[in-house]
Amino acid sequence: FAVVSVTLVCFVQERGALGFERHYHVTDPFIRRLGLEAELQGHSGCVNCLEWNEKGDLLASGSDDQHTIVWDPLHHKKLLSMHTGHTANIFSVKFLPHSGDRILITGAADSKVHVHDLTVKETIHMFGDHTNRVKRIATAPMWPNTFWSAAEDGLIRQYDLRENSKRSEVLIDLTEYCGQLVEAKCLTVNPQDNNYLAVGASGPFVRLYDIRMIHNHRKSMKQSPSAGVHTFCDRQKPLPDGAAQYYVAGHLPVKLPDYNNRLRVLVATYVTFSPDGTELLVNMGGEQVYLFDLTYKQRPYTFLLPKKCHTSGEVQNGKTSTNGVSNGIHLHSNGFRLSEGRAHVSPQVELPPYLERIKQQANEAFACQLWTQAIQLYSKAVQKAPNNAMLYGNRAAAYMKRKWDGDHYDALRDCLKAISLNPCHLKAHFRLARCLFELKYVAEALECLDDFKGKFPEQAHSSACDALDRDINAALFSKSDNAEDKKGGGPIRLRATGRKDSISEDEMVLRERSYDYKFRYCGHCNTTTDIKEANFFGSNAQYIVSGSDDGSFFIWEKETTNLVRVLQGDESIVNCLQPHPSYCFLATSGIDPVVRLWNPRPESETLNGRVVVDMEGASQANQRRMNADPLEVMLLNMGYRITGLTSGGAGGSDDEDSSEGQVQCRPS
């Protein structure tokens, strides 16, 4: 009994210590003191990939110099350096689970995957099945002898080191769905359920696959008596129904034609799961960083519209309401389906004094045209008061003024949320119509504006209404309008990306069933390299980190999406950010031939030369950079100064509001 008691106590203490470590190893004070600890030198080319071992006492790096180095990062020592046998840049490096950190896997631009035994510094397996650059390797603790690769030939391959054959099998062939031009760029396995594999590729869609379902489907196909018999119309699906789920930022499929015209490429450069496996983080090349909730999924908001509310004489603009009618939001793939059902609308509770002060600070920032500051303050208040319609309505106004990529879609989401909380929120109704117009849903914008005029007749002839009405009608009757592009979400969402892409019917269905994001993180720039990472920081995933083309890396609070820290991590571009598994310790790399280590610096260190103080200025510059002509960006990278890239407002292609009335421009 005594032995059992001691064991139980030790177990409780260990669990308690683990919980304490998970909660406190990355905290806000630590983040605000994060600074450069050391630079690890040893490579002679760009360092394209980093990987911690499970215990966190080893760090592996891969480089353009075709070498991999294993470091003791805690003592800043190089333990091992070996040529991998690759003949081109290394893009991915992974420790094989349960190998005692003895087996290391590398993937490179020579289309090869190599397996190395570090104890003897030898390459023990060489796989040459891919026909284009290998961009990422993934491993899974539940499958200790198995790993996967993603390459620009559009294939996801699976390897089993128990097999004598030096070949791999194709797990997923994206070319069967998207045509020969599709490129797989990244992949990762869910740490809590190793049966789920996320894949990023060309275009805005991120794919989540059930590996077990795929294997069971293929096994049953082989065992089926009619497996070799096919009729003229018979078609075997490469993946079973339910084995794939797609995720996409709701506005991006609509933006694709515009981006393609401006030679702006959308591609997922990195995907990773949260430590608990319930969230998926995506660094979308050519756009922002997105977080998808895998538990509470939501359809894209672009096809939603609220139904009814009381007359405009009732409560407006997010203030106290009684006995309203629910907006009854429903999904409909072509336009809007308006609910007829009644429901109770909760009265809007007054904000507590400290949140009222935050709201007033946000309003003051808005009045001073400090849009990002206003957004961050509203977001801080929204986190504490998630059922306050006024906060969502005000934040929507700030998004619409700032006009960064995706801002009008976030504003649309906030308007819908505000209306769901208070169906008689006048400004949210009007802003919703303006957002639809800015997102090129012109017919839906007209429908929404007509709905607004019916609900709030005293506003029907306001200057804002008249201006939006003119804009909508001009767009509807413009000779340059493409009716298919402007009406309804379905056709746009199913659009191929042009050129020789061949989108299959199965792919179109999967895209139409995509789920939308939960959070969006802005400030960085990801247009120059296609290996740029974004990661969760902290065992509870409290923060989001991402590299950037401006040589900095950015840190956001996950729940508020507010930017809290920017640090200069490279002389050119930060590509890799790998947080330590259990400490507030971060490894980064990029174009410089070094690995940099970051941790909270002592309070006695008052000067940190790598802190970017003007985070707002850095973020605005990156938004301009993302919307710049690709030639200008190339010249800028070569050292030429381009005037158009360093002046003017951020936000690129979004049209300026020609005129606004009171109903839209002021927060409540």
TrEMBL record:
Pfam families: WD40. InterPro entries: DCAF8, TPR-like_helical_dom_sf, TPR_rpt, WD40/YVTN_repeat-like_dom_sf, WD40_repeat_dom_sf, WD40_rpt. WD repeats lie at residues 40-72, 83-126, 537-566, 567-608. GO terms for biological process: negative regulation of fatty acid biosynthetic process. The keyword Repeat applies. Transmembrane segments: none annotated. The keyword DNA damage does not apply. Residues 647-668 are annotated as: Disordered. One of its GO terms (cellular component) is cytoplasm. Keywords: Repeat, WD repeat. It comes from the Eukaryota. This is WDTC1 protein. It comes from Steatornis caripensis. The gene is Wdtc1.
